[in-house]
Amino acid sequence: MTTLKLTQIGNSVGLILPKEMLARLKLQKGDSVFVTDTPDGVALTPYNPEVAEQLALGSEFMREYRDTFRELAK
């Protein structure tokens, strides 16, 4: 477990992530981070949960109409 301190950054309060954590999350300066509420607190992730949900719906749609897509590909 890593403890991070909130620091004053201009007129805002921010959190500085250590290099090791940035590398593990595959984040760089300028990247977006998404915060999601979970039953255990909050989750910090570089992946947009809305896009993941849309991809899952698209996969389900393609699976449902697999035969149609196969015929269209001919």
Structure commentary:
The protein has 74 residues and is α+β, with helices and mostly antiparallel strands. The chain has one domain (6-73). 42% of the residues lie in helices and 24% in strands. The chain is built from three helices and four strands, in the order ββαββαα. It has helices spanning 19-25, 49-64, 66-73, and strands spanning 6-9, 12-15, 34-38, 41-45. It has a two-stranded antiparallel sheet with strand order 1-2. The chain has a two-stranded antiparallel ribbon with strand order 3-4. A hairpin with a 2-residue loop joins strand 3 and strand 4. The radius of gyration is 19 Å and the shape is elongated. The termini are far apart.
Shape: elongated
Q: What value does the average pLDDT take? A: 87
Question: Low-confidence segments, ≥5 residues, pLDDT <50?
Answer: none
Order of helices and strands: EEHEEHH
Strand arrangement within the widest β-sheet reads 1-2
Percent in helix: 40-55%
Count of distinct strands: 4
State Rg.
19 Å
Structural class, please? alpha+beta
Number of domains: 1
Number of helices: 3
User: End-to-end distance, in Å?
Assistant: 54 Å
| Biggest β-sheet strands, sense, barrel | 2 strands, antiparallel
Beta-strand content estimate: 15-25%
